Amino acid sequence: MEPPSTNPLRLLYQDDALLAVHKPAGLLVHRSPIDKHETEFALQYARALNGGSHVYPVHRLDRPTSGVLVFARDPETARVLGLAMMAGQVGKTYQAVVRGWPPAGGDIDHPLREEPTDRRLKGQEQPLREARTRYRTLATTELAVAIEKYPTSRYALVELYPATGRKHQLRRHMKHIHHPIIGDANHGRGRHNRYFAERFGEGRLMLAATRLEFRHPHTQAPVVIEAEPEPSFRRVLSIFQP
């Protein structure tokens, strides 16, 4: 299927080997057995930016997560950069709005069980795998809104640096330290999610990939790709303004 003329991806970086874009929240990276009815994917839009030629996903972002997404323009580049990803040689930075006020910074070292996509395996206990995330708190706010048992509600803007790449790692780790990400339907708090959806006219996961750092797979030159969060994310950040 040919994508519509309006491409939702924003080109961030391109050379002979790589294509980096900003993916909006709500767009799947590629076809998924869980979302068989979907017909639009970041992969097809990236191919349109590549002159119609094939591109190869190097990593993925969950559907509700927005931000920096990198494709390779040939299979060998995908292989080399994919190995660097698995070896932890790619620095990833995310921003998230969370419930409560976390400490100024910290390290979350909390193993996670696999979350199988095959429904037939969901009743079976999966093995624990190492999972580590570093974070720092960028801003905090307290709103005069009673959502749970307190007369006010506290929120924070945090920066997250995953050292491993487990499925839904950032969401699960922030829940683990009792500061779930706003808009997370599976690991968050429904009343807080509803408040933000009603206040800002739409509900979204408040998680954005803002920076990727790595060595170019062919030249070994340092590559830094950055993107500020999209407007739907930035509107929510107005709660941190004095």
UniProtKB/TrEMBL annotation:
Catalytic class of the enzyme: isomerase
Gene3D superfamilies per the UniProt record, alphabetical: Pseudouridine synthase
Pfam families from the UniProt entry: PseudoU_synth_2 (PF00849)
Protein EC: 5.4.99.26
SUPFAM superfamilies: Pseudouridine synthase
The organism's taxonomic lineage, starting at the top: Bacteria, Pseudomonadati, Pseudomonadota, Gammaproteobacteria, Pseudomonadales
tRNA processing found in the keyword field: yes
Entry-linked InterPro entries: PsdUridine_synth_cat_dom_sf, PsdUridine_synth_RluA-like_CS, PsdUridine_synth_RsuA/RluA, RluA_PseudoU_synthase
Catalysed transformations (reactions): uridine(65) in tRNA = pseudouridine(65) in tRNA
Keyword Isomerase applies: yes
Biased composition, class Basic and acidic residues, residue ranges: 107-127
Protein name: tRNA pseudouridine synthase C
Alphabetical UniProt keywords: Isomerase, tRNA processing
Reported function: Responsible for synthesis of pseudouridine from uracil-65 in transfer RNAs.
Domain Pseudouridine synthase RsuA/RluA-like: 18-176
Organism of provenance: Marinobacter qingdaonensis
Positions of region (Disordered): 105-127
